[in-house]
Amino acid sequence: MSSRDTDWDGVRLHVVTGKGGTGKTTVAAALALALAAEGRKVLLVEVEGRQGIAQVFDLPPLPYEERKIAVAPGGGDVYALAVDPEEAMLEYLEMFYGMRRAGRALSKLGIVDFATTIAPGFRDVLVTGKTTEAVRRKGKDGRRIYDAVVLDAPPTGRVVRFLNVTNEVAGLARVGPIKNHADLVSGVVASPETAVHFVTLLEEMPVQETLDGITELRGAGLPAGGVFINMVRSSLLPATALDAAAAGRFDPAELALGLKAAGLAEGGSATVAEALAQEVVEHARRTELERQERTSLDAAGRPRYELPLLPDGVDLAGLYELAELMRGQGAA
Questions:
Q1: Closest Cα partner for 122 from 57, 181, 81, 77?
Q2: Higher pLDDT among residues 306 and 274, named by residue
Q3: At what angle do helices 85-97 and 177-189 cross, to 10 degrees?
Q4: For 200-213, how does the pLDDT look when each residue is reduced to its tens digit (9 = 90+)?
Q5: pLDDT value for 189
């Protein structure tokens, strides 16, 4: 296994969050591939019950067990785990109380659902606990089982509450196994071994939610990671043309002459030019808005990584492409 400098040396738990629709799960999956490259072993965890990992890797629904799902570039393995809160509860009862069989009976009575409904913080402790256990786990040789763990976390608006498990269970248990378990989870989540990354688009709402999320994260004493700008569209025109269009100086007549000289749109070059000119103006406006959103993200002071909008959508090949881009930018 070769070593290389990255922005996140020493980080072993990568939490990925973002506003809905930004491609959070796709980025988490690509990050897992990037981190596993060159012979490493990475666990990719999801906790929302959406089977998003299975979808992006084009696999059947994943069971509640760690299983290998991909080979990373240059060798290395990606394992996946879809955490089921009920199974996590049963593991918890067995671990601390030796009650797995009794727990299954309680599950049939609906006690598990009842407990996690009236105390949602307890549910978060269960699923984050499973993730942080994987971070800490060691083999017989004393080495960590996984070189890194990537957590596909809840959306930005809920991620701080999800991770701040000590506060969430404070009213539920001040002493005992639940409190001790929460403290153990918090010890990993709030440590330098963890980074919480945000996924955004160059649009006003997801950018503002990212900035608010970073501020809230810092207020809770949790470690902010990087910002992944997803689905970036490259400019199709030179800067001079975009500047002219944005300033209202783009001349459709010149475009019509160019079309005519090229033998395009004969007899209707003016009409075609007008339509194309409108497209150019819209493109220029969007490019200017995206520039403003990049400037807004500068205020966060976090490392940034740009991932392109893939023209054919995100398939398995696309995931590997995104992983290589992440590595090229120092994210993994």
A1: 181
A2: 306
A3: 120
A4: 999 999 999 999 99
A5: 94
Structure tokens at 244: 């002219």
Task: Determine how many CB atoms are found less than 10 A away from the CB of residue 68.
Answer: 10
Nearest to 307 by CA among 20, 3, 18, 22: 22
Positions of E strands within 165-223: 194-200
Dihedral sign for Cα atoms in the order 310, 300, 285, 17: positive
How do the domains of the chain map onto residue ranges? 13-233+309-328, 239-285
- Laid out side by side, the sheet with 148-152 consists of 67-71, 77-82, 41-46, 148-152, 13-18, 194-200, 224-232, 304-308
Q: How far apart are CA 145 and CA 139, in angstroms?
A: 6
Q: CA distances (Å), 26 to each of 22, 56, 181, 200, in order?
A: 9, 7, 30, 12
Q: What is the pLDDT of residues 222-250, one digit of tens each?
A: 999 999 999 998 877 777 777 776 676 76
- Beta strands 41-46 and 148-152 are parallel
Q: Express each pLDDT in 289-301 by its tens digit.
A: 888 999 999 999 9
Q: Beta-carbon neighbour count of residue 149 at 10 Å? A: 29
pLDDT at 314 over 70: yes
Reference 23, options 280, 268, 201; nearest CA is 201
Q: Residues 88, 99: contact at Cβ < 8 Å?
A: no
Q: What are the phi and psi torsion angles at 263 (to 5°)?
A: 75, 25
Instruction: Tell me which fold the domain 13-233+309-328 belongs to.
Output: Rossmann fold (3.40.50)
